[in-house]
Amino acid sequence: MVEKSVFEMILNKEIESEIIYEDEEIFAINDINPVAPVHILIIPKKKVATMNDLTEEDELLVGKMVIVAKNLAKSRNIDESGYRLLWNTNKDAMQTVFHIHLHLIGGTMLKGI
Ligand code: AMP
Q: CA 34 to CA 87: how far, in whole Å?
């Protein structure tokens, strides 16, 4: 059996976490270890382990994740001040949860990358 990701466990209510946004395909939570005042994870309900596993079928899903992220940025009032959207893939990017997620980070001046 394939091991469940922490995000699937949150979605199945096996781990407690406040779901701050949800639709049929996507949900969002606050990162447990925020690196900025706003640090939200936008997550597809469908488990895709890494960005490398995306296919053309996922085009719409990934696009929707970006739209959800920019709407959340507006709802947190950081759309004008600015924010960063980030996807980590595999070890050099320090991906730790193998269920893709889009980081929405902002609410402060971020260091350059
Ligand atoms: P990444 O390093 O891109 O794989 O990011 C995984 C993120 O998931 C990290 O920023 C963690 O702090 C976050 N995270 C791990 N477990 C939880 C959890 N139970 N609730 C919220 N965020 C989590």
A: 15
pLDDT tens by residue, 37-72: 999 999 999 999 999 999 999 999 999 999 999 999
- Number of structural domains (the chain) is 1
pLDDT tens readout for residues 6-37: 999 999 999 999 999 999 999 999 999 999 99
Whether residue 1 is contained in a domain is answered as no
Whether 29 is in the pocket of ligand 1, judged by its Cβ within 6 Å, is: yes
The pTM of the full predicted model, rounded to 2 decimals, is 0.97
Range of the domain at 80: 6-106
**CATH number of the domain residue 45 falls in:** 3.30.428.10
Give distance in angstroms: CA of 30 to centre of ligand 1: 9
Distances (CA, A) of 16 to 32, 50, 98: 11, 24, 19
Instruction: Report the run of H or E that residue 9 belongs to, with start and end.
Output: helix 6-11
Q: What residue has token string 């994870």?
A: 41
